[in-house]
Design a protein that fits this description.
By secondary structure, the chain is of the alpha/beta class. 53% of the residues lie in helices and 15% in strands. It has 16 helices and 12 strands. It has an 8-stranded mixed sheet, sandwiched between helices. Strands 1-2-3-4 form a 4-stranded antiparallel sheet, with helices on both faces. The termini are far apart. About 1% of the residues have low confidence.
């Protein structure tokens, strides 16, 4: 086989592999460092830097040694490296996370270190392909533009396929590490194919070395560890990479816990021994009491939960008010809903699951609700489009005349900047906003009312609670001054400007540095 005939296929596969590696990198990093705007920024920036270095090196190498055999050797090394990433990613990423755990800047530095160590070398080598191939294919300066255009067009076409295949088929079907193995094998097979029929002096023994690369990767695929990441505490019952999250279900004592992505927070709890968790889910039961003083207990009839997760709040609301309360649970990730049914006993007949983005659902929904509970996190971040004035205006439009919105906001013991931002934004839409600190968690619940409401109104309504479960949670909410009107009136987040990720990173950095 003429190696020149494989140059254009090599350009295509290399373009596909470069984007496949980028998406694979994002998925490998997610369980350790998340998928925030900053992680993506670091990842994309480093990939572009590596490609730029590869373009320069490839051009220089091609001018000095315009040999197809050298190019196929470079791509063989790239294929081997990509194939080894799934084997070595676990210890490198775990060390990166642990090494920077005491500083929030570790979110950036740990990601940077991991990406450089794991992905820079193969991306640099793949960057060499296009300029090298142009040099080898160029026969006439007069047709140089056509040659360059064809090479870069084919490389870009490969990159497009390398975007769609992993996202829509390979990663959801096979997982991240098998996806990287597939790209590695494709690149190695083409590289070995370009080298194998050659009879140049000195190359024959090396052909067997590069053929061995393919064997090493295939054997390595058989040795891939079954787990993705060990749980921080407890026993791992289940884990999966979904289209949106890295999901873990962990058994800790008698409790089943839902842990997502970096594993820095619990997103749902199922404890057959107690309905009260001591966490933020408990306080969603109190949403209907935040209204002007009522002669009778204000029990909700319709509740919407944005961020259903394992259904902890839905089970509690059902237990408190019975199956007569209609609950709509909006969840964007179908795999989380599957986990909720299998491990968190989400089987109440009054809970109706909706698979949708929370804001899109609000914008297209026409029913009205007594309580809208917002608990949609990609820990430690809240999606920015769920923190803005426009979002809360949509929520207000979906409330009954005396309804309330309840938002779960993270904080530290002393840093309430996220609470400040959300409460200030909600105050721009709602007449009254109240705060309740969660005693055993680093969370504050923010309640916003459709009608002007006083603190005495809320306390009066809570005193009417008849269900023991509600009364128990109400006692924790009103004790030790946890329930209070919000005095925050600072920056109002909008769809155009909602720097929630930067704010949360500042909170994490402040907490980490003060702890030292």
């Amino acid at each position: 086989m003429n190696a020149r005939r494989l140059l254009l296929p090599l350009v295509f596969v290399s373009g596909m592999a470069s984007l496949g590696v980028e998406f694979g990198a994002s998925r490998l990093l997610a369980p350790y460092f998340g998928t925030s705007l900053y992680v993506w920024g670091v990842l994309i920036g480093l990939v572009l830097i590596s490609l730029s270095i590869g373009y320069v090196l490839g051009g220089r190498l091609a001018d000095r040694r315009p040999s197809a055999d050298l190019l196929f050797q470079l791509t063989a090394w790239a294929g081997l490296w990509i194939g080894l990433i799934p084997l070595v990613a676990y210890p490198i990423l775990l060390e990166s996370q642990q090494g920077f755990a005491s500083l929030s800047v570790g979110l950036v530095l740990g990601t940077l270190l991991a990406v450089v160590m794991l992905f820079a070398v193969p991306v640099v080598l793949l960057g060499c392909v296009s300029p090298f191939a142009i040099r080898l294919l160029l026969r006439d300066v007069g047709t140089g533009g056509n040659t360059a255009g064809a090479v870069y067009g084919l490389s870009t076409a490969g990159s497009i396929l390398g975007t769609f295949l992993p996202v829509f088929w390979m990663i959801p079907t096979f997982g991240t590490r098998p996806t990287l193995i597939i790209f590695s094998v494709a690149l190695l097979a083409l590289s070995v194919g370009g080298l194998w029929p050659r009879t140049l002096t000195g190359l024959w023994p090396r052909r067997w070395v590069f053929a061995a690369f393919l064997v090493i990767v295939l054997l390595g695929a058989l040795l891939l560890p079954h787990g993705i990441k060990p749980p921080a505490v407890g026993t791992l019952l289940y884990e999966k990479e979904s289209a949106y999250h890295y999901i873990q279900v962990v058994q800790d004592g008698g409790r089943t816990e839902l842990v997502l992505n970096e594993g820095q927070a619990i997103h749902s709890i199922y404890d057959p021994r107690s309905l009260v968790t001591g966490g933020p889910w408990d306080y969603f039961m109190l949403g209907s009491y935040f209204r002007p003083a009522q002669p009778e207990e204000p029990r909700p009839s319709r509740v919407a939960i944005l961020g259903l997760a394992g259904g902890t709040a839905a089970r509690q609301i059902t237990a408190a008010y019975g199956q007569s309360v209609d609950i709509t649970g909006v969840e964007i990730d179908p795999d989380i809903l599957d986990v909720a049914r299998r491990y968190f006993h989400l089987d109440e007949p009054n809970v109706h699951e909706v698979l949708q983005d929370a804001r899109y659902w609000l914008a297209t929904e026409r029913d009205r609700y007594d309580v809208i509970a917002m608990d949609a996190y990609r820990q430690p971040y809240i999606p920015f489009h769920l923190t803005t004035r426009e979002f809360f205006q949509l929520a207000r439009d979906r409330l009954a005349p005396a309804g309330a919105v309840v938002v779960n906001a993270g904080r530290t013991a002393t840093d309430y900047r996220l609470v400040d931002a959300l409460a200030s934004t909600m105050a721009a839409v709602f007449p009254s906003v109240y705060l309740v600190d969660v005693a055993s968690f680093s969370n504050t619940m923010i309640f916003a009312t459709m009608e002007p409401t006083t603190l005495s109104d809320v306390e009066h309504n809570l005193a009417l609670a008849s269900e023991p479960l509600v009364r128990q949670v109400a006692a924790t909410a009103t004790g030790e001054g946890r329930l209070r009107p919000s005095a925050y009136r600072s920056q109002v987040f909008t769809d155009d400007l909602a720097p929630v990720e930067r704010l949360i990173d500042q909170i994490i950095f402040g907490y980490a540095t003060s702890a030292r």
